């Protein structure tokens, strides 16, 4: 690619980018997270409804997240992880190691929000040195259950992290495309149990719920005890 074409592609990418604002508030506090999104059809650079719902859940559970060690898987635009960082969590944001543009955008968004998060390339089902150092008390994943071909790699990674940090939990929001029975099957297969299951829209303020659509569930999972195995 010659220099002129490269400059033109950069200009087009810049024109397709936008910064969205996401507010979270209660009676005592309001925070705002700015997200750099790209309006091209790139799943990793767009804030999907599952991210909004999981971010809201983190906000409503902010005392639980304060000072927690949080790892967000498939973070993309990383809204839930950034909310966790904003309320005092120690956050590692991860996405596929091969998606350098997504990882670069995550660093940019951290700088934009003046948040210090660790950004890490982590490919599900791949055991490189980086994953062995992670000791999350809470694992987050927004809309990570969309490609059935990746389910086992995702659950293998989640299970490893849960075992690496006893007492930890995995919280994910997902579109209920195939029915919760599929999630139940995966949990049983990987020795996990459901700790909490919610209708995603039940936790949203009404003005946010009116802007989103879909059948979105939020589930907390943990390792099944040996007694229940």
TrEMBL record:
SUPFAM superfamilies: S-adenosyl-L-methionine-dependent methyltransferases
Top-level taxon in the UniProt lineage: Eukaryota
InterPro entries membership: Methyltransf_16, SAM-dependent_MTases_sf
Ranges where the record places region Disordered: 1-20
GO biological process, one term: methylation
Keyword Lyase in record: no
Cellular component, GO, one term: nucleus
PANTHER family recorded: HEPATOCELLULAR CARCINOMA-ASSOCIATED ANTIGEN (PTHR14614), HISTONE-ARGININE METHYLTRANSFERASE METTL23 (PTHR14614:SF164)
Family: Belongs to the methyltransferase superfamily. METTL23 family.
Protein name as it appears in the record: Methyltransferase-like protein 23
């Amino acid at each position: 690619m010659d220099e002129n074409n490269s400059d033109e592609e950069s200009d087009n990418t810049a024109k397709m980018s936008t910064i969205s604002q996401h507010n979270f508030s209660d009676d005592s506090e309001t925070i705002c997270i700015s997200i750099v999104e790209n309006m091209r059809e790139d799943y990793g650079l767009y804030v999907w409804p599952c991210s909004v719902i999981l971010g809201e859940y983190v906000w409503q559970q902010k005392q639980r997240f304060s000072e927690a060690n949080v790892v967000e898987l498939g973070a993309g635009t990383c809204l839930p992880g950034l909310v966790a960082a904003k309320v005092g969590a120690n956050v590692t944001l991860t996405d596929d190691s091969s998606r350098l543009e997504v990882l670069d955008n995550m660093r940019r968004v951290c700088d934009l929000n003046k948040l210090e998060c660790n950004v890490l390339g982590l490919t599900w089902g791949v055991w490189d040195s980086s994953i062995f150092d992670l000791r999350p008390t809470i694992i987050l994943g927004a809309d990570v259950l969309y490609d059935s071909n990746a389910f086992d790699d995702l659950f293998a990674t989640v299970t490893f992290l849960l075992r690496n940090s006893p007492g930890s939990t995995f919280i994910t929001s997902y579109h209920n495309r195939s029915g919760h029975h599929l999630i139940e099957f995966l949990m049983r297969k990987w020795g996990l149990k459901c700790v909490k299951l919610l209708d995603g829209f039940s936790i949203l303020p009404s003005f946010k719920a009116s802007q989103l659509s879909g059948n979105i569930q939020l589930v907390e999972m943990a390792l099944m005890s040996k007694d229940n195995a």
